[in-house]
Amino acid sequence: MTFVAVPALKNCVSTGDGVPKENSPFINNTDDKGNSYDGTNMALFEEEMDSNPMVSSFLSKLANYTNLSQGAQEHEEADDDEGPKKKAVKSPQMGTFMGVYLPCLQNILGVILFLRLTWIVGTAGILESLAIVGLCCSCTMLTAISMSAIATNGVVPAGGSYYMISRSLGPEFGGAVGLCFYLGTTFAGSMYILGTIEILLTYMVPKAAIFVADKKEDELDALLNNMRVYGTCCLAIMSVVVFVGVKYVNKLALVFLACVILSILAIYAGVIKTIFDPPYFPVCMLGNRTLKNHQFDKCNKIEVIDNITVTTQLWNLFCDGSQLNATCNEYFVNNNVTELQGIPGLISGVISENMWSTYGPLGMLVEKSNLPSVEGGDPTQDIYMPYVVNDITTFFTLLVGIYFPSVTGIMAGSNRSGDLRDAQKSIPIGTILAITTTSIIYITSVVLFGACIEGVLLRDKFGDSVKGNLVIGTLSWPSPWVIVIGSFFSCCGAGLQSLTGAPRLLQAIARDGIVPFLQVFGHGKANGEPTWALLLTAGICEIGILIASLDSVIPQVYSCLQFFLMCYLFVNLACAVQTLLRTPNWRPRFKYYHWALSFLGMSLCLAIMFISSWYYAIVAMVIAGCIYKYIEYRGAEKEWGDGIRGLSLNAARYALNRLEDAPPHTKNWRPQLLVLLNVDSDQAVKHPRLVSFTTQLKAGKGLTIVGNVLQGTYLTKESESKKAEQNIKAAMSAERTKGFCHVVVSSNLRDGVSHLIQSAGLGGMKHNTVLMAWPGAWKQSNDPQSWRNFIETIRETTAAHQALLVAKNVDSFPTNQDRLGEGTIDVWWVVHDGGLLMLLPFLLRQHKVWRKCKMRIFTVAQMDDNSIQMKKDLQMFLYHLRLDAEVEVVEMHDNDISAFTYEKTLVMEQRSQMLKQMHLSRTEREREVKKLPISFSLLFSFSCALKLLLVIIISTNLLLLSSSYSLHRLQAQLIHDRNTASHATINDKVDAEPEQVHMTWTKDKLLTERNRNRECNANVAVRDLFNMKPNQTNVRRMHTAVKLNEVVVNKSQGAHLVLLNMPGPPRNRGGDENYMEFLEVLLEGLNRVLLVRGGGREVITIYS
């Protein structure tokens, strides 16, 4: 029975990345050794109790699960390092209403509703305003549905949206989006604080301004300076409240939210009152232009006082004097002054006029189109007149960007997931309910504002036409002050929620350790309050406040918008990926989701990003991309079972299935390497330069599998196997070799290599080339199995139609840090086996180690070949192959076999025969020792060892004697051997016939007879070595090796690398040891050599 460990249990030791250590709390728990199992009912499982505990023993841990994301218990391993555990301080455990619904409601019903929604309705019209609200609310609702599915698919500790994205899409995406969302939340907090100060100084206590402008042109600068000073003070107060604790934030939130709800109720009450008693808020119009009435009380040019016509304050604003004959503005003279009812009421029919949009450029006058107007005067002087004008250029996408931050508070609850009693239950219900509530409020507000308020007053952003009153305040009942106070506390509450959620988000990112330099912000007070993260958040907020204008912060608003949208986009993407992958762990309790809804939400987020501001969208993506690459490069590696990994697995499976359909075309062929790497007794890599050479060959971007074989059984060699795998991976990492490691444990090395050649890889991603090192110590080895394994590997690669690369003197090959200077890579093209010889130098020269090397191709011409024509044909062939190389044809004439070649062949065969005799003696001795008792075995082994030593001494003397023969003696012996070969063979057969003996055997007689036969065999072996004649086939092969070696050494001894066709092993296994001698002679005197044997197919083509 297997139990799956659930992360973040009460007694779980966290690793800091959200994944508990495997040795606690369930499987492989070695801490509770005192709880031994003594019962007999489950004796069948008693041997597994140390690693797999009984269900009854840990159900209490499951039942007592607590989601401690804040506080000292969240990262218990840090406390363990410091010493005894600290006394746990419980964080507030809030429910759905207090923990999610109210924070979301407070963040959503913020500054935009009270300060900008009326202006949006007046500018965009009711229809387009409904489109804006519907678009933004649909985006957030779809995101909330996706977020609910993710939040109910497991425990959601601290971090909220960051935790969901990082555990669904990986640490890189989670960190990038989480940091962007943190910045967006932080700048949104500064925007809410600026809204608070604007309401305070503009609508509540204008006289509290510290900086007062002497000139009209300086009014904006004075306002900005006042906002900077008051904003900094407000930020400091809010930071202190957040620092004291989230408990006090929640208490203040109730007060603030109560004021907001009262303000909204006052708006609805005012709308109802307009049906029978509209409030009196007149708007003064000059022609069809709206006037600011800050500096006049009566909307008249002149008035009659005591039968005397006198001018008004309005006259003085447009004329150069108060006299009736003063020079006045031409438009003022030509048009009459009229008063409009600013709030005509719900049944006035003004809704038809407010249906359509009225966009315009910066400085455009706010006009009522159906009023009479006579144009006149200098339009350039209008900016000095008390007209209400557009302070910014307006268009649809701008309004989308300004409105969307008002619906971005949907993450306020999830950001505080660590403070929730049951995050899986609270986040979906609270968030969706808050979005539904606020969507209804926004939609009804758009319709009611358009139905009750005059269009010119709606487009008056700051209420200048109604003596600076808040436009939405003119509609409320019983007093505009209800709206002013409500909007003030609404902005305060939203800013407070931002300062509460943002530090917790940063703390969760820092504690995961994915961004190394942020880890200091993971620390906090004993109860888990993020002190350092709060300080950083306050500092970033201060930067936003120093910008100081709610509308001139367009970059700030757009950056917040883009960061929020990016977060929502990835929440939708995470849900869609998890749904489509259908991973077994994807079992959300929230069932009302679908991948199509997630894709629609993701598309809406992406569309709004580019609709609102395409260049800020690109900037936000670049910032997120930089964070992503930084985390990928410097961040800690995490394995969180994310969906991107699952997506990669699905893509790999799909690609492998496609590759399986047909073999690759020659144009797509590239070396897929199986590197046979050896390790020493300590499992350290023997030839790390072979891994370096693999990296240098990877310009072909092919597959790399580094394989190793350990001799033994897996049960006894498991630890050695894992250690070897770790060492090989470390070597691959040091050499930057991208690939896979495969360590096989087999009863013998031969079978293990065979298994690797046959089974390494998967489907179409199998190796087609084997790379191995030349067995340099094969002559010194007492075990002939080493070079026999090498030859069998050559045979198996040939049988599997795989190419083979053998690197001789591999330890002298360059490392990846070396840079070879001017030199050559020499290719000796003796036989054609697919063109691999010409492809390999091209791949090597793509790497910076070999980049300066030139390529030379040598081919061998026989007596009957036309060397000149061969060179021309080869040059043309290389031209078609698009390869730059020097070409040279080397002529090898048929020469007589030299005495040196004959002598070398004879020595080779004598050595082979001697080794065979030694091997037979050893095999027979071991077989007889097994049959005898111990006392006889010891005596017999000692006797055999003495006689074997005698054979070795005699054989060595014979080899020395044979090597001192003169040339004439060798030639005479060769002629004599030809004449007597058949006769000697017959005599040997006759002598070799065993005697027919019939007797009764005893142990003594057995030993005597065996020793006598062995003495005879030793004498025969000595006589055979003395009379040995070299095989003519071996002589010819040795002649080829010697002559070809002379040519190669003469031409390529100074080359950086020599590539040479590798001759195949003999079909008859009896000549394997001679084959190794041939290769040794062929490569003698060369430093770096790569023997190449093709796989039996073309790997290079002249066609495109």
TrEMBL record:
Start and end residues of each Amino acid permease/ SLC12A domain: 100-277, 388-674
Annotated coiled-coil segments of the chain: none
Known catalytic reactions: K(+)(in) + chloride(in) = K(+)(out) + chloride(out)
Lineage, uppermost ranks: Eukaryota, Metazoa, Chordata, Craniata, Vertebrata
Superkingdom of the organism of origin: Eukaryota
Record's subcellular location: Cell membrane
Keywords for this protein: Cell membrane, Chloride, Glycoprotein, Ion transport, Membrane, Phosphoprotein, Potassium, Potassium transport, Symport, Transmembrane, Transmembrane helix, Transport
GO cellular component: plasma membrane; synapse
Positions of the UniProt region annotated as Disordered: 70-90
Protein name: Solute carrier family 12 member 7b
Residue ranges constituting the SLC12A transporter C-terminal domain according to the UniProt record: 688-806, 812-892, 985-1104
Originating species: Astatotilapia calliptera
GO molecular function terms listed in the Swiss-Prot or TrEMBL record: potassium:chloride symporter activity
Protein family (similarity comment): Belongs to the SLC12A transporter family. K/Cl co-transporter subfamily.
